[in-house]
Amino acid sequence: MGLQGEQTAAWFRRAKAALVNGVSSQFRYWGDDDTMVIDHGEGGYVIDMDGNRYIDYQLGFGPVILGHGDPDVAAAVSEAALAGTTFAMTQRREVEAAEQFLAAVPWAEQLRFGNTGTEATMHAIRLARGVTGRDVILKFEGQYHGVHDYVMFSTAGAPPAALGSRSQPVPWQSSSGIPETIRSYIRVLPFNDMEGVERLFRDQGHQIAGVIVEPMLGNAFGIMPEDGFLQGLRRLCTDHGSVLIFDEVKTGFRMGLGGAGEYFGIDPDLGTFAKAMGNGFPVAAIAGRGDAIKGWAEGGIAQAGTYSANGVAVAAAGATIAKLATGEPYARIETVGRMLMEGFAAICAQQSVPAHVPGVPAMFGLVFSDEPPRDFRDAANHDEELYGDVIRRMIGKGVFPVDDALEPWFLCAAHSEEDAAKTLAVFEESLREARA
Ligand SMILES: Cc1ncc(COP(=O)(O)O)c(C=O)c1O
Q1: First and final CA of the chain: distance in angstroms?
Q2: Residue ranges of the alpha helices (H) in 48-155?
Q3: Claim to verify: residue 298 and residue 342 sit in the same structural domain
Q4: 1 assigned to some structural domain
Q5: Is the CB–ligand 1 distance for residue 117 below 6 Å?
Q6: Among the options 247, 269, 378, 403, which is catalytic?
Q7: 251 in contact with ligand 1, CB cutoff 6 A
Q8: Is the CB of 409 under 6 A from ligand 1?
């Protein structure tokens, strides 16, 4: 039996007739019987077309940090929509949101706004290449930086066997339709493999324009960086004149107001932000410091966008950042998220299921494996079947995370301790049933 109720199934049939596979983004398609159609969201909940309410731990793959339909963000957006949104000129709300951003992210000196994470990483990579005059970019296995050609290699969809050996990893192309030559501009390594990064810089440092990294592995279990890893990237980029890009599309405004840069105490040269910055509205930023961000001011490196910094997007960013800057949403997320992380670990221990809960309260993984995962290659060792079974049972009982362990659980400030208590009870029961 699939996840859809009667009305949801009928809406999905309509969706499928009009939209390719019934979705507007491939990751939303769970199969014909399981792809949900949502009527609306309310705080930490989503409600499907049958009126079923679920505690939502997908939160749109991470953007919704305050809760669905946050009234302050909605009010700011409504006001901006009525004031006209797109002017082909700089606008007041854009300047205000940029100032708020810079106050929140202490290492960043300047920024430009965009609309999506994909756009942000595309521009950051072009900046890195433009200012260094080099072509090669290093990325890490299991990391996702959006859907443009330059980064669609060895993402979390890769079969571990296709990644090559640890010492000589092979960039696995994550999509058809990417020209073969693009592969020659990319190097991939396992996350946390400092030895590999040292070796690559020793051999090819003069070719490396930049390193793009999700500071924690937000697209594979929420794996944290080991001590010294991000510091090592910082040091090597400085020594070799390469640009360090933190892809903070998932971590930005989620790990804390200053994102992963502040959390780990590392200043990248460029950072890409989207998701939690706008609580679900399409807004992104490419922020930076020093020569890397000055590349745009000096000219010759293209960046543009009709909808960049449109009034609705920057109003959403401004209202979201203002609310996050009070610290109150993070305190709530910390309490509820920690309750879940500790609760999951305790229930697994009680039921003698080897498990690990990497990450932070705002965004964490739940991994059924003997050893804690260190990088994406460890995906081969987790019990994918048990995880999928448990999660599908949980969805049937009103708790909705992604059914793939690689995608973290996301928390928002609207989740309550009661939601966490219900989630833990449902998890305990579902784990028991799945193992029976
Ligand atoms: C770390 C990271 N970078 C970039 C992106 C791409 O963002 P978008 O989907 O807004 O294009 C994502 C999307 O999940 C992401 O997780």
Answers
A1: 19
A2: 71-82, 92-104, 117-132
A3: no
A4: no
A5: yes
A6: 247
A7: no
A8: no
Which position among 269, 275, 330, 375 bears the catalytic label?
275
Active site residue 247: yes
Task: For residues 317 and 425, state if they share a domain.
Answer: no
Contact call for residues 245 and 125 (beta carbons, < 8 A): yes
The minimum-distance atom of ligand 1 relative to the CA of 248 is 1
Instruction: Please check whether residues 115 and 171 belong to one and the same domain.
Output: yes
Q: Is the CB of 219 under 6 A from ligand 1?
A: yes
Ligand 1 binding pocket includes 247 (Cβ within 6 Å)? yes
Mark whether 355 and 309 lie in a shared domain.
Answer: no
**Residue 142 Cβ contacting ligand 1 at under 6 Å:** no
Asked, for residue 6, whether it belongs to a domain, the answer is no
For residue 257, tell me if it sits in a domain: yes
User: How much distance in Å is there from the Cα of 250 to the middle of ligand 1?
Assistant: 7
CA distance 112 to 312: 16
Which pLDDT band, with edges at 50, 70 and 90, does 415 fall under? very high
Regarding the beta carbon of 393 and ligand 1, being less than 6 Å apart is answered: no
Does residue 1 have a pLDDT over 90? no
pTM (2 d.p.)? 0.98
Atom of ligand 1 nearest to the CA of 284: 10
At 198-223, the pLDDT tens digits run 999 999 999 999 999 999 999 999 99
Measured distance CA(229)–CA(195) in Å, rounded:
10
Average pLDDT over residues 336-357: 98
Separation between Cα atoms, residue 286 and residue 245, nearest integer Å: 10
What is the 333 CA–ligand 1 centroid distance (Å)? 22
Instruction: Give 37-87 pLDDT, tens digit per residue.
Output: 999 999 999 999 999 999 999 999 999 999 999 999 999 999 999 999 999
| Domain C-terminal end among 309, 324, 339 | 324
Q: Which domain holds residue 248?
A: 71-324
| CA-wise closest residue to 164 among 175, 154, 155, 174 | 154
Give the separation between CA 56 and CA 45, rounded to whole angstroms.
Answer: 5
The candidate with the shortest Cα–Cα distance to 126, out of 323, 361, 296, is: 296
Give pLDDT, residue 39: 98
> Pocket of ligand 1, candidates 122, 143, 250: which has the most ligand atoms within 8 Å of its Cβ, to mutate?
250
114: helix, coil or strand? strand
For residue 351, how far is its CA from the centre of ligand 1 (angstroms)? Answer: 35
Question: Residues 270, 288: contact at Cβ < 8 Å?
Answer: yes
**In terms of domains, do 339 and 302 share one?**
no
Return the ligand 1 atom nearest residue 251 CA: 1
Task: List the CATH number of the domain containing 314.
Answer: 3.40.640.10
The mean pLDDT of the chain is 97
**244 and 315 fall within a common domain:** yes
